[in-house]
């Protein structure tokens, strides 16, 4: 039986629970859940209590990625190309959320956000998944409250457990967060036979809808319209995760 390996340095020791390969065949060590660790809570408290978030028209919430820093992951490179093809940099602020907590993208290289690898989707332990939901809802609620008057629009591009946490946090705070992809698109691409039935946010149908949603949002900003995106009502009920 393979024994878990302990990695020391850069904070408290971390347990390597699995080694996976990226699409180029490079090994990536997967650690134990980061959301339990004190350094992630300490970093979150710094963001909530001390960090100044500059006002922007739009907050774009994107899920965290295994590759670090997040902006260099294949998925985030794709997302940013889509975003930059529609919105001006001065109009939006990217916020990363998920197993890392809730992190302004410009802090992606701050410890501990560049120093962990974890994949919630591979976790079958329901206790861990419940704990993630509870902790992430708490962290999203804190960030939404902190930035209540910082943004005029909020859009989260997410599926699965991250989407479920965002829905609950938005409902608890009463702060409108538009969601993409839409529920009908998720239903259309859902494949029960796949390990991850909702697929990947890099799938073309999701990406096309993300681009269309950004284009509509950009038009509303130019027109001074604060109406929620069509197909993305301001208050969402629970979604399948």
Automatic annotation (TrEMBL):
Single Gene Ontology BP annotation = tRNA processing
Identify the taxonomic lineage of the organism of origin.
Archaea, Methanobacteriati, Methanobacteriota, Stenosarchaea group, Methanomicrobia
What Pfam families does this protein's entry cite? DUF5591 (PF17884)
Does the keyword tRNA processing feature in the UniProt annotation? yes
Q: Please provide the record's keywords in A-Z order.
A: tRNA processing
Entries under InterPro entries matching the protein: DUF5591, Uracil-DNA_glycosylase-like_sf
Q: Where is the DUF5591 domain?
A: 48-122
Tell me what this protein is called.
Answer: DUF5591 domain-containing protein
Q: In which organism is this protein found?
A: Methanoculleus chikugoensis
Q: Does the keyword section mention Metal-binding?
A: no
């Amino acid at each position: 039986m393979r024994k878990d390996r302990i990695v020391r340095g850069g904070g408290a020791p971390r347990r390597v629970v699995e080694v996976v390969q990226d699409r180029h065949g490079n090994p990536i060590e997967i650690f134990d859940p980061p959301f339990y660790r004190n350094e992630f809570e300490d970093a979150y408290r710094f963001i909530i209590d001390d960090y100044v978030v500059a006002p922007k028209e739009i907050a774009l919430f994107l899920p965290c990625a295994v590759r670090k820093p997040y902006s260099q992951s294949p998925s985030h490179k794709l997302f940013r190309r889509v975003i930059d093809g529609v919105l001006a940099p001065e109009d939006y602020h990217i916020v990363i959320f998920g197993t890392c907590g809730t992190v302004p993208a410009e802090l992606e290289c701050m410890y501990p956000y560049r120093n962990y690898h974890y994949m919630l989707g591979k976790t079958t332990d329901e206790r861990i998944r419940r704990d993630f939901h509870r902790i992430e809802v708490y962290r999203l609620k804190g960030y939404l409250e902190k930035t209540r008057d910082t943004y005029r629009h909020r859009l989260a591009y997410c599926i699965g457990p991250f989407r479920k946490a965002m829905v609950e946090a938005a409902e608890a705070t009463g702060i409108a967060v538009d969601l993409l992809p839409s529920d009908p698109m998720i239903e259309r691409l859902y494949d029960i036979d796949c390990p991850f039935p909702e697929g990947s946010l890099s799938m073309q149908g999701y990406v096309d809808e993300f681009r269309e949603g950004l284009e509509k949002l950009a038009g509303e900003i130019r027109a001074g319209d604060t109406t929620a995106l069509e197909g993305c009502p301001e208050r969402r009920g629970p979604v399948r995760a």
